[in-house]
Write a structure and sequence with these properties.
Length: 376
């Protein structure tokens, strides 16, 4: 991205009202870093927990170089009300005329009261809708943010089309360019590969972490019956299902299987050597950062055919799986990759890597936000 030609009088504040880090927190922090490198007056507001966890990530020491544009709040509770009270001194001090960007939850009406430009990013899979009066609060807050916002940045293409049906929102809407992005200096193929299958993500129901683990013995039996050497299975991440997964793999059906369950903040070391990557989300695999990083490492992706998943890979790059995670289908797709000769795999892997490089550039997305903020 080109550096700005002049100073910009209206600063931008990206406010993350979350506690911890996931794909959204990493993505917006990395965009903020790119915008700061270009000299734009963009501030980042994060919780203490998010800040500390970001610093544990490789390459995030750069946060310290931009400390004067980084604002950290302490909250005794992760509840929304307590979070708003904790962040209030910071957001209330943002000057009139500034642009305030909330990628996740937001502080209602403050931007309107202070005559600021409000940008809302909607990163969730679904648009909130009411099925009963009990849903009122859950639905009302997001729709209030849609009405209050001057601009709506929408991550999911299907959600963009749904919101375009509301005439009063049409002029506010834009689609996040590139969806996600990858650090290609860290995520790249290794010349040495191992027969391994990797699941990487939060270990929770939406990601199908436990469901995949439950199918490993059946997958292994099918591969073994076909005369294939069994791969190592990696399950990388933390989450609500972790304890159940560890309990499960300690049981008798998993005896003799090579299964690694762990968390690492440098998954590139595993992905760069793996052959198969599983992205098994229940609703949509678009735009999975972990999937994009695995593709950058040249892993052949196997992904559930749900939502906008086909926007991530074409039919020739990987394989689409039935959402029911049929062991026979999963084993057949894994076997197809494991049977490739070294030369055949290198060619397939290289094609996947080049696709990732052409699609998932941080510069492309940070330029999109520079345009959204009015810098370009």
């Amino acid at each position: 991205m080109n550096s700005p030609a002049r100073a910009w009088p209206a600063p931008v504040y990206i406010v993350l009202l979350s506690h911890g880090i996931g794909g959204a927190e990493k993505r917006f922090t990395e965009n903020w870093i790119e915008l700061r490198k270009a000299g734009y007056p963009v501030h980042l507001v994060v919780s203490r927990l998010t800040h500390d966890m970001l610093l544990e990530q490789p390459g995030m020491e750069i946060l310290k170089q931009h400390a004067e544009h980084l604002h950290v709040f302490d909250s005794a509770s992760h509840r929304y009300g307590a979070t708003v009270r904790a962040v209030w001194p910071i957001v209330n001090a943002i000057p009139s005329g500034a642009t305030v960007h909330y990628p996740l939850a937001h502080v209602p009406l403050l931007a309107w009261w202070k005559r600021q430009t409000l940008i809302i990013s909607w990163v969730n899979v679904a648009i909130p809708s009411m099925k009963s009066w009990r849903d009122f609060k859950r639905v009302a807050v997001p729709w209030l943010s849609f009405l209050e916002a001057a601009k709506l940045d929408i991550l999911n293409p299907n959600n963009l089309e749904r919101l375009r049906q509301r005439s009063f929102l049409q002029r506010k809407l834009s689609l996040t360019r590139a969806g996600t992005f990858v650090d290609f200096e860290r995520y790249a193929p290794s010349s040495e590969r191992e027969n391994s299958v990797v699941f990487l993500g939060r270990l929770e129901r939406e990601k199908n972490a436990l469901a995949f683990t439950q199918r490993i013995p059946a997958i292994a039996r099918i591969l073994s019956a076909q005369g294939l050497a069994l791969p190592r299975f990696y399950i990388i991440g933390h989450g609500a299902e972790e304890a159940l997964i560890r309990q499960l793999i300690a049981s008798e059906p998993y005896a003799g299987l090579d299964i690694v369950v762990r968390y690492t903040n440098q998954p590139c070391e595993i992905l760069s050597r793996a052959k198969v990557f599983l992205s098994l989300q229940r609703t949509s695999n678009y735009p999975s950062k972990a999937l994009a990083e695995a593709m950058a490492c040249g892993c052949v992706p196997l992904i559930t055919d749900v939502g906008e998943s086909r926007l991530m890979i074409g039919d020739t790059l990987g394989h689409f799986l039935d959402p029911g995670l049929l062991p026979e289908q999963m084993a057949a797709r894994i076997a197809e990759v494991l049977r490739l000769s070294n030369g055949e795999f290198a060619q397939r892997s290289g094609t996947v890597h080049q696709h990732a490089r052409s699609r998932f550039s941080v510069q492309e997305q940070s330029q999109y936000f520079a345009e959204l903020y009015g810098f370009l």
